């Protein structure tokens, strides 16, 4: 479908190899997504890198801010493919993409076909002009690209069958829900308690029901949807506890906490060094209102002030003036580690026991299960449909995490 004037046979073979790799890894699960990846010339959307890099399964940096933080990228093909599978695009779908670049919009245009419509918006005029140019140059001039803050969606094209974000959100903006058709799908990289998951939701009577979720990483949202995370700094700035906007914390009560004697306990739970425990972290995040992420500078770990479960830090919990966090030690089997808890403060023992109990509950009940499911109720949902106790409250929604 595209006009591949300057697409070489070599680019075509690299593209087929990339598609084959994504099928092998399971990122691509359907024929239409495979066909779209084989068809869209990614290298023409990333003219700043070589052909080989354009068809490597990696993110391509397009723009950084003054501090060197990435603010615009063309996303990693694995993540793009996984999100397209979550999106379930069918011919004729009307789609809004928030966060442009051109490549993903071209793929969606292939999937929605000539009867569909793709609108892509980005807050950055430089990005929209580059995306518009690349889309026109590759034959996807039907994709409409506008500069706008995605927080407000693009009402002119509503209702959409799909709203798909390619930028990290920490809330579900009312506009996305309003502009979705009943039964429509929202695919959004949603950051909750320090973890970002691309979640596919279906809109049913104003409520978003999660169908699937995968861990992912995207650049942060700019504009009106930016949220204010909270941090508590310990040991100078070398140890940072990160909380979300809705959590109530007393950072003052924690000053000097790490100088209080540590209380170390072991859970008797072994984990493979390769096993991701993001689900354990999310479980703990839903069990403890004072859940946070502890990040430590190498020097604080080397000095023995902290000994977190991962090289950079890990899950932690604050309760009153006490702090407990996950640690680990090697086990007799070299590929396994044992989980433990280090706690400080006046209620260290009680907090450590509570944490150990929740880690055991996760191990016995959820560790080998299908993983979390999410439901999102707008705060404006009528009282006749209460969500029960929400696990996370964002500016506009109540998020419930289910563990089937
Ligand atoms: C990962 S890039 C998009 C990748 C792109 N979809 C592709 O095809 O590879 C994320 C984009 O989100 C944009 N962005 C950040 N905040 C935004 C907002 N509030 N509204 C719209 N776009 C935003 C950034 O300017 C950036 O270009």
Automatic annotation (TrEMBL):
N-terminal signal peptide:
none
Lineage top rank: taxon: Bacteria
Name one cellular component (GO) term. Answer: cytoplasm
Tell me where in or outside the cell this protein is found: Cytoplasm
Pfam families to which the protein is assigned, alphabetical:
PCMT (PF01135)
Quote the NCBIfam families the UniProt record gives: methyltran_FxLD
Stated name of the protein: Protein-L-isoaspartate O-methyltransferase
**Species name:** Kribbella amoyensis
Give the classification, highest ranks: Bacteria, Bacillati, Actinomycetota, Actinomycetes, Propionibacteriales
């Amino acid at each position: 479908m595209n006009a591949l004037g300057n697409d070489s046979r070599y680019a075509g073979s690299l593209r087929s190899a990339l598609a084959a790799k994504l099928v092998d890894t399971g990122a691509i699960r359907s024929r239409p997504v495979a066909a779209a990846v084989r068809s869209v010339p990614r290298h023409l959307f990333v003219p700043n890198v070589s052909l080989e890099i354009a068809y490597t399964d990696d993110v391509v940096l397009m723009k950084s801010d003054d501090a060197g933080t990435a603010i615009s990228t063309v996303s990693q093909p694995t993540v793009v493919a996984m999100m397209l599978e979550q999106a379930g695009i069918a011919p004729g779908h009307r789609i809004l993409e928030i966060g442009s670049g051109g490549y993903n919009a071209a793929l969606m245009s292939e999937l929605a076909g000539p009867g569909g419509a793709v609108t892509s918006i980005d807050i950055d005029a430089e990005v929209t002009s580059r995306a518009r140019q690349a889309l026109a140059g590759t034959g996807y001039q039907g994709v409409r690209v506008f500069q706008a803050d995605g927080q407000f969606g693009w009402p002119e094209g509503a209702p959409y069958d799909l709203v798909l974000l390619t930028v990290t959100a920490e809330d579900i903006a009312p506009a996305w829900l309003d502009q979705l058709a009943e039964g429509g799908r929202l695919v959004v990289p949603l950051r909750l308690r320090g973890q970002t998951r691309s979640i596919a939701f279906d809109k049913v009577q104003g409520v978003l029901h999660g169908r699937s979720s995968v861990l992912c990483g995207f650049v942060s949202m700019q504009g009106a949807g930016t949220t204010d995370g909270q941090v508590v700094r310990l040991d100078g700035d070398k140890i940072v506890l990160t909380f979300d906007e809705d959590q109530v914390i007393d950072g003052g009560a924690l000053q000097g906490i790490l100088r209080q004697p540590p209380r170390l306990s072991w859970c008797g739970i072994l984990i493979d060094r390769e096993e991701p425990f993001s689900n354990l972290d999310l479980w703990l995040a839903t069990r403890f209102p004072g859940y946070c992420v502890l990040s430590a500078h190498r020097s604080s770990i080397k000095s023995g002030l902290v000994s977190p479960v991962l090289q950079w830090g890990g899950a932690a919990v604050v309760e009153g003036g006490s702090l407990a966090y996950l640690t680990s030690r090697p086990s007799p089997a070299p590929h396994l580690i044992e989980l433990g808890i280090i706690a400080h403060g006046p209620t260290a023992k009680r907090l450590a026991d509570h944490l150990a109990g929740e880690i055991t509950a996760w191990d016995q009940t959820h560790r080998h299960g299908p993983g979390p499911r999410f439901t999102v109720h707008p705060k404006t949902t009528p009282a006749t449909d209460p969500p029960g106790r929400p696990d996370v409250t964002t500016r506009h929604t109540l998020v419930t995490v289910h563990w089937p």
